[in-house]
Design brief:
With 106 residues, the protein is mainly alpha-helical. It is built from 4 helices and no strands. It is elongated.
């Protein structure tokens, strides 16, 4: 069983790396290449540039905040306002009230 597992790992490694011999760093280089390729695709660019991943994350987060808030366009502070609104709503429910008032939990 051990030999079969080792041979399977070697085979899968060759396929993943698209090369017959493994050298130190091959996996990290291949993962880095693949991630950069995908980020470049998300940005509709031919090549990855430094900062592209941050832009993709920023865009995705803003999309998610818009889904949470029901707004079309993201504005700075939307997430904080939405969280505040939701927390106050839950506190009001907990206290058996329709609306939260400062001091309800104290």
């Amino acid at each position: 069983v051990r030999t079969a597992v080792i041979e399977d790992l070697k085979k899968n490694s060759r396929e993943f790396l698209n090369k017959d011999e493994y050298a130190i760093g091959d996996f990290s280089k291949e993962i880095d290449r693949r991630v950069k390729d995908e980020v470049a695709k998300m940005r509709e660019k031919d090549e990855y540039e430094l900062g592209d991943f941050s832009v993709v994350l920023d865009d995705r987060i803003k999309e998610m905040v818009c889904e949470m808030t029901g707004k079309e366009e993201y504005e700075f502070g939307d997430l904080s306002v939405e969280i505040d609104k939701r927390v106050k709503s839950e506190v009001a429910k907990f206290c058996g009230k329709d609306e939260y008032e400062f001091g309800d939990l104290s």
